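Workshop exercise sheet. Pairs work together: one partner reads the sequence aloud, the other fills in the structure field after running the prediction. Swap roles for the next sheet.
Pair: D.N. / O.F.
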Amino acid sequence: MKDEKDKPMRISDLEKKTGMSRGTIHYYIREGLVSQPNRTGKTMAYYTEGHIGELMEIKRLRDGGFPVSHIREMKAVTKHRRPAAERGEASQERKRRITQKAVEVFARKGYHQTKIGDITGAVGVGHSTFYLYFPSKLALFMECVDEVFQAMFSGVWEEIKNEKNPLGRLRKRGEVVLKSYPQFIDILQVLDSTVEDDSRLEAMRKDIYKSIAMTVKRDLSKAMEEGLIPQIDAEIVSYMLVGFLETAYLLMSLDSRYGADDLLDAMVALFSLPAADPLSPSR
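Structure field:
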């Protein structure tokens, strides 16, 4: 007995299951975006679950803002791809290369300065191929953001470890962000602005902030042990310093009088201030 899902459908069934009008369905068939139905007569045409899948994919892309012309181009690329067994392996390799190159470009240019063309050009594929794997630049970025941070800082942090003075290490970390990788702030701002759209991004943002803050916290704790700074809540201050770097970057972009060294000197100077005596009379 045939499975219910394999049962042929009429156009009225397709309308109900996809929420599309028959005029829209016929239009997509004429445009070559949907497979031709099985025709048993001049006016008799039958459809399958495969047609539903094709129509729902078009609906998803249209809801995502893609024009019909672009969907047609994507369809053309798909038609010329190799058989499924080979396609799966080649597809995964192509996606891996796109992601790998995206990590390099995002780490070098930041999010907003990176164009999809920068990535596709480096990989040697077209925009239509890119959209077969990722619906947008943001979707690709969110898939590889952890690797982007690793690409920025993994080697740099190792070099900074050679600095024995914990306050010196702290200043060097600030130098890396404000001088070598200002795109780091750009990426933090992207995470800040997108968390409302996806709850997963909120968790990712917290993890990234925590990872950075805990690195700063180790330097602060060491500085307290060595008596270089007064006793403070190192965890609270570490998060405050991450915020300081974001503010410093904004100030540098707004006022050319301030450079990275000026702001980093001010940051380190804060730790040289004597701790307030809570028993002393106010002046």
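Discussion prompt: Residues 80-87, 275-283 have pLDDT under 50 and may be disordered. What would you look at next?
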